[in-house]
Amino acid sequence: MSVDWKRGINLLRKAFRKQDLPVYWHRNSPHTYQVWQHGVMLVFCRRYCDSYTEFVDWLPHSKLPDYIGLQAIPDEGTLCKEERRLKPFLEMAAVLLILPLLPQSFVAAADMTGLQTKKASSYYIKRVLVSFSRRGFARLELICWKQYILGWELRLTRKDELAMLKSLWKKLRKKPTTVTYDKKGDCEDYHEWLEEQGIRSIAPVRKGAKRGRIRRKLMKNFPQKTYNKRNRIENVNFTFKHRYGDGLSAYSLRGRRAEITTKIVCHNLWVRLKALLHELFNIARAKKGI
User: Fold this and answer.
1) For 222-254, what is each residue's pLDDT tens digit?
2) How much is the pTM?
3) 100-277 is classed in which CATH architecture?
């Protein structure tokens, strides 16, 4: 555990250095904490705790303060404020963690999932407030390679999945060569949009479809083996929501986007640490065989 923590902290610090993260936000600050220390604490908070209060109680009993040279324990308000302030740096760190691992050409999968924004059930609200309230959901669009999340977009209002993917596409640092989608991606305009960028689009064609040049090609010769790689994003959706919760605890839009960004940094970081552990294990086995 301590080895993984130290490796994770080093990876995060390396990602922050590439962005020229300042040591302190301004020269008149008390200089109690450095900015990168807040970033590391927020990542560990989302990984091991459900709230800021739980993390503040857990932190003194862990070895994390020794690993990052922490002089004092921050309060909940400080962590909440710093998470919103560090959001663009954490967003870039999530990408920089996996950018060196991406091959020259790879297959990515895209999908959308829902996250709860209200913790109370509609039955509870109806019984207490004597009025019906529809449970709200946020829409999270993800694009993944293997178990890594390459890009994401969070929306609190209704928006089409493919429209979310198009706006998310501009943020990708490295574009995949093939994109797989479910039947929602069975749209000739969507296929042509990807074809104009030199990217192959794979989506199962709906029953009774007759129109569309690319759709007819998929009907005649559907690449099932390549499309089966899309199952990985279903695993990512399940593991992400199972580990970090299927809801958002923040109340403001800015806070919710910062919260989901920190959780995605946690996901990418621990997936990379797990892959590194398997790689070291295989190297050790190969040396023993020699």
Assistant:
1) 999 999 999 999 999 999 999 998 888 888 889
2) 0.89
3) 2-Layer Sandwich (3.30)
